[in-house]
Amino acid sequence: MEERLPEEIDLADPELYFNRELSHLQFNARVLEQAMDENHPILNRLMFLCIFSSNMDEFFEIRVAGLKSQLEYSREKNGPDGMHPKKVLSLISEHAHKLVRRQYRILNDIIFPKLANENVKFIRRSVWNEKQAAWVKRYFRDNVLPIISPIGLDPAHPFPRLANKTFNFVVELEGRDAFGRENGLAIVPAPSSLPRLVKLPDDVCEGGDNLVFLSSIIHAHADQLFPGMTVKGCFQFRLTRNADLEVDSDDIGVDLAGALRTELQSRHYGSSVRLEIAENCPLHIVDSLLKQFELEQQDLYRIDGPVNLSRLMAVLELVDRPDLMYPPFSPGLPRKLASSGGLFEAIRQRDYLLMHPFESFSPVIDLLSEAAKDPSVVAIRQTLYRTGSRSPIANALVEAARNGKEVTVVIELRARFDEAENLALASRLQDAGAIVVYGVVRHKTHAKMILIVRREGAELTRYVHLGTGNYHAGNARLYTDYSFMTSDKEIGDDVHRVFQQLTGMSKELKVKKLLHAPFTLRDRLLDMINREAENALKGEPSRIIIKVNSLTEQKLIQSLYKASQAGVKIDLIVRGICTLRRGIKGISSNIRVRSIIGRFLEHTRVYYFFNDRNPQVYLSSADGMDRNLNNRIEVAFPLQDYKQTRRVKKELEYYLADNTQSWILQSDGSYQLSKPRKGEYRSAQRALLSELADNTR
């Protein structure tokens, strides 16, 4: 048993915590490394490179922008690690520059050559043959030139206001124009309506798929944008701005949707946070742009290739090469859910637990569709976070409302980067006759709940769906998440009470089985952690396994430290940010932390406690973060069936045994990829595919 922690040791000591933002960058680095993993098909490796680019965009738009705002407005706030925001920004710049350089080396030296070997080629303008150059010239003349608007810079043409992440060129010119102007610089915004990748026709190529970048097309014909002038240089660049919406709850009044619509209009023009520019752009032009955007050298990223690599996702639509991607699979479906007896009958007989994407998401959609048509269903209530205004879920709710059901939907308008889509969804539901509310102003509604009320004889029966992920059919093929369907009376009563709090106004209502943030979830998790510690101190078996996307909440981490010190064996499966510092003798020696990065995005949240040989398992929409446990509407729901509890434990063990896609957190904050011995390859996601997919049970 581990030596007990002396009382004088302060568990709030900054030395016990990693920095949140630097841990976030470590996660992005692990995503980038998937582009190097030869176990992934080559187009999937390209996808990971694109995902890394998209992740970094959001990191700068939100996290870096937030740190810069703290400094700008003298609101510096050190995190639990004690690091000043200015120091954090400096370290972010150092690490991010290394990651971006590695990203482009992987793209240019590995991904492009391997795709070329598979006859998928990105044709640089320097190697266009005569036919290709002629075709590109016609494409420029017919599709680009008519809609592009070059802007010369002079007192009558000030520097244009460039929107966040738009694709632009800065052009260096020589000569005088028709009006005698010779400023020397111009800006060419690339129209957003134009594709960033263009596929060359087969008749100008020698077989295979041949693609050219819009940047190459514009660069090759920049002189046509400035007739009579000499183009000395043309350099692509992209500006990243602060994209975090700041809707002041004190100024909202009674119209959150209206306030959000107003704020959305300004999202594209927040303060500057990053400048990406072509590697060969002259220093005097770079300095001019940095000055224009009020940025420093550490905010500058010179790019050896196209800016905004996330747009390379278009390759998947332009190139029909399924042999270069993971083969498709059919998600599994429990036999009784697939029977013709109807979902209400099946759920009335027993609870169902599904794990997506290995098992089908269709029962969730079918449950709502069946409810929309069933004359016995009188009411439907649902929370929506990221769904889509034209999704199957939205369609079922619209149909239900039009069929006279009492449909109440709690839409979280402030789901980051889905705000506009959620506003459109709210309008569509309201037009159909549904009651739409926006949750609680100061607390995002992140819980995933459906409550269906059905008249059965003389009684009303509640049917419930609870999940760890969003009600989005597309995400359910990419993210790992649990779905739980039940007609348990007490859980139905609990969900009903949570909806009462969300849609009406009341004091905190007691719930029997659910854990409910911001009221009971964190404290009950702390209680269960402390109980394991007490059992360990008494010499009883103890065990904690927690699987979340991120772990940053300080009190939760401190409880885990205390449990570790008491001798509890703790396994943490944390996909992304983890500020807990493992490997500290006498404090976190009994804690192991791993991150699983694979074909699917790990998204399940599971809290497992050995509980004196009577295991307790809670599944949740909540991560181990301050925002989830203290500032959001979240729920955690228990598994009451022993077989389901045992099943989830078994699935957690798959992740703990993974030695091909698991990254182990080291004591210095770095992550080390597991290296299996020959013949001992174990992948959790592959095991779950094998066990759950395409398997009628």
Automatic annotation (TrEMBL):
UniProt PTM comment: An intermediate of this reaction is the autophosphorylated ppk in which a phosphate is covalently linked to a histidine residue through a N-P bond.
Q: Which InterPro entries match?
A: PP_kinase (IPR003414), PP_kinase_C_1 (IPR041108), PP_kinase_middle (IPR024953), PP_kinase_middle_dom_sf (IPR036830), PPK_C_dom2 (IPR025200), PPK_N_dom (IPR025198), PPK_N_dom_sf (IPR036832)
UniProt entry keywords in alphabetical sequence: ATP-binding, Kinase, Magnesium, Metal-binding, Nucleotide-binding, Phosphoprotein, Transferase
Single annotated GO MF: polyphosphate kinase activity
Tell me which cofactor or cofactors this protein depends on. Mg(2+)
Q: Where, if anywhere, are coiled coils annotated?
A: none
Where Mg(2+) is bound, by residue? R386, R416
Task: Identify the EC number(s).
Answer: 2.7.4.1
Active-site residues (renumbered): H446
Q: Where is the Polyphosphate kinase middle domain?
A: 131-314
Q: Which domain of life is it from?
A: Bacteria
Polyphosphate kinase N-terminal domain location: 17-122
Q: Which family does it belong to?
A: Belongs to the polyphosphate kinase 1 (PPK1) family.
Give the protein's function: Catalyzes the reversible transfer of the terminal phosphate of ATP to form a long-chain polyphosphate (polyP).
What NCBIfam families does the record tag this protein with?
poly_P_kin (TIGR03705), PRK05443.1-1 (NF003917), PRK05443.1-2 (NF003918), PRK05443.2-2 (NF003921)
Q: What is this protein called?
A: Polyphosphate kinase
Organism, as annotated: Marinomonas rhodophyticola
